[in-house]
């Protein structure tokens, strides 16, 4: 009788590849937007534009962490997904409560409404994928 494998998939395999691709797409979109805004209109909304740049960095590092698939990559991805979730919820709430602080949109303002709320869903999917692929310490039966 064949023994069932208890190994979980790696973070960079299967659906993880799609997750990495979405993170890379958002890294490109957010960094392009932030670079343009910072170089052309920084004085109009510095907080918003710097937050977009931060979001871009988080997306890049999260994609790299997911792609590495090792213990260090997993920890990096976990930290980035958690930071991203806190960022999108925090910035989203503040941008709705105090719109005067955000004269222009960020990736995370309005809970990512300008990007179809994907910035709100993406870290949840990332955390769920990391949980799904987590290797459980197998206790050998005595």
Quick tags:
single chain, 142 residues, mainly alpha, elongated, disordered C terminus
Describe it for me?
The chain is mainly alpha-helical and 142 residues long. The protein has 4 helices and no strands. Helix 2 packs antiparallel against helix 3. The radius of gyration is 18 Å and the shape is elongated. 31% of the residues are buried.
Give a summary of the structure in a few sentences.
The chain has 142 residues and is mostly helical. It has helices spanning 15-41, 46-68, 71-97, 118-132.
SSE diagram, text form:
Blueprint: H1 15-41, H2 46-68, H3 71-97, H4 118-132
Helix pairs in contact: 1-2, 1-4, 2-3, 3-4
* Main sheet record: none
Tell the overall outline. Answer: elongated
* DSSP helix fraction: 55-70%
Strand-residue fraction? under 5%
Report, as a whole number of angstroms, the end-to-end distance.
Answer: 21 Å
Order of helices and strands: HHHH
Number of strands: 0
Radius of gyration: 18 Å
Q: Round the mean pLDDT to the nearest integer and report it.
A: 88
- Count of separate DSSP helical elements: 4
Structural class: mainly alpha
Low-pLDDT windows of residues = 136-142
